[in-house]
Design brief:
The chain is mostly helical. The protein is about 70% helix and about 0% strand. Strands 1-2 form a two-stranded antiparallel ribbon. The chain has a two-stranded antiparallel sheet with strand order 3-4. Helix 2 packs across helix 6 and helix 7 packs parallel to helix 16. About 45% of the residues are buried.
Length: about 425
């Protein structure tokens, strides 16, 4: 009798712990997200609510595929493992196949669409180089910091704050950077047509993929495979992760294409940060006279200063990424709050964040808006951004130890 009582008591305690550690956070997270969606639909429209949902889908994919750029590039530089880079090439290959025909026609599902095709100048070279250093010091790129924060890594917050300040600072210098000598925008689609442009880009993706395979094989004698638990049912893999990098690459390419259909332009992350900085300055009663800065005189930006953040597409999608990662982490039962780190890491995060924000703003975008969406748009500036940012990443990786940041990564590191 006493044994049964003790067993029942232990079961009750275990159930109580499960409720406290899983069901309650899960219920609260779902309620928060659903409430946010319907609140947005009520005060704005279902268009804005759908942008939040789209951002959440991106956040879920980023979290479950552990899809980032910072660790992927650093792992290749320090250890020669190219799995993350190959995932990015697959993502870009799927993206250009979807984007190029739509951008060539200028229309998608009856709506006008256009890509990000920017001038080629020093602002991109310097900005991307600074960004590359910053994402290694800040331990995350533009999209990475968002989904890390949503997944409970509050250590990403100092970098996000630095990103906001750096982006606002860059808007003051924006006119100087963009008036430096530069070449005209170059579009592969306009220069060659859809099919030749596709072939050129796909050939470059294949070359980079082959190069990573050769380097990895020479350094380690084997190719690091994308391992995941295939014994789990498909639905359980989708819910709990981790996803194969192929799933993440495909999901991000398709969701970027969905962004193009919904907004008429590709996915961008960094564009929201200067606006957050401007709104914060306004809230703190700091008069910066933004109306006289060239950056804020451009179409859409001046009106964004006057309108609430609930109507800003970049803000809604960024918040959605955070909420999507939070949903993914709670549903998978992996949500853990991480905020403790050495003071040197805090300093690196803030400095890195400043560099991320400043670099992204003068370079016409970050790893998403300039690299991913720029190349998906058929713009040569996306490739220029990649080269400059990768060189910056080499420098950033070399100075990480000064801030007690380790360059050691496990061989099974994902993207």
């Amino acid at each position: 009798m006493s044994t049964n009582i003790r067993h029942n008591t232990d079961t009750s305690i275990a159930t109580s712990k499960l409720t406290a550690r899983y069901i309650i956070p899960l219920t609260a997270t779902i309620l928060l997200f659903v409430t946010g969606v319907f609140w947005l639909a009520n005060i704005e429209s279902w268009h804005e609510a759908n942008l939040l949902i789209l951002g959440a889908a991106l956040g879920l994919a980023l979290y479950h595929a552990a899809f980032g750029f910072t660790t992927a590039w650093r792992t290749f530089i320090t250890h020669g493992h190219g799995k993350g880079l190959r995932a990015q090439m697959l993502m870009l290959a799927v993206a250009v196949c979807l984007f190029f025909p739509a951008l060539a026609s200028g229309e998608l599902f009856g709506s006008q669409v256009s890509g990000f095709v920017r001038p080629l100048g020093w602002s991109i070279v310097v900005g991307a180089f600074i960004f590359g250093i910053g994402m290694q010091l800040g331990n995350g790129c533009a999209s990475g910091n968002l989904y890390h924060a949503g997944g409970g890594q509050f250590r990403a917050i100092p970098s996000m704050i630095g990103f906001t300040v750096g982006a606002l600072w860059a808007t003051k210098d924006y006119e100087w950077w963009t008036t430096l000598p530069q070449l005209a925008p170059y579009s592969f689609i306009e220069e060659f047509g859809v099919m030749p442009a596709l072939m050129i880009n796909l050939a470059v993706f294949a070359f980079i993929t082959l190069a990573t395979l050769i380097i990895e094989k020479r350094r380690h004698g084997f190719i690091d495979k994308d391992t995941h638990n295939t014994s789990l049912p498909l639905y359980q893999q989708l819910i709990s992760g981790p996803w194969p990098f192929i799933w993440g690459a495909m999901a991000l390419a398709i969701l970027n294409f969905t962004t193009l259909a919904m907004l008429g332009r590709p996915w961008a992350v960094a564009v929201a940060y200067p606006l957050w900085g401007a709104k914060a300055a306004e809230w703190l009663n700091i008069d910066l006279e933004l109306d006289f800065w060239t950056y804020w005189m451009q179409p859409g930006r001046e009106s964004a200063l006057m309108e609430p953040l609930t109507s800003d597409a970049g803000t809604l999608m960024n918040v959605g990424i955070i909420m999507g990662a939070l949903l993914a982490a709670t549903i998978a039962g992996k949500l853990t709050i991480q905020w403790r780190m050495p003071w040197q890491h805090w300093v690196a995060a803030i400095i890195g964040g400043l560099m991320l924000g400043y670099g992204a703003t003068i370079a016409f975008g970050c790893n998403i808006g300039a690299y991913f969406s720029g190349i998906a748009s058929g713009s040569l500036h996306g490739w220029l951004w990649l080269v400059a940012a990768f060189i910056g990443t080499i420098i950033g990786t070399s100075i990480r130890p000064l801030f007690k940041l380790s360059n050691l990564t496990a061989t099974n590191t994902r993207c």
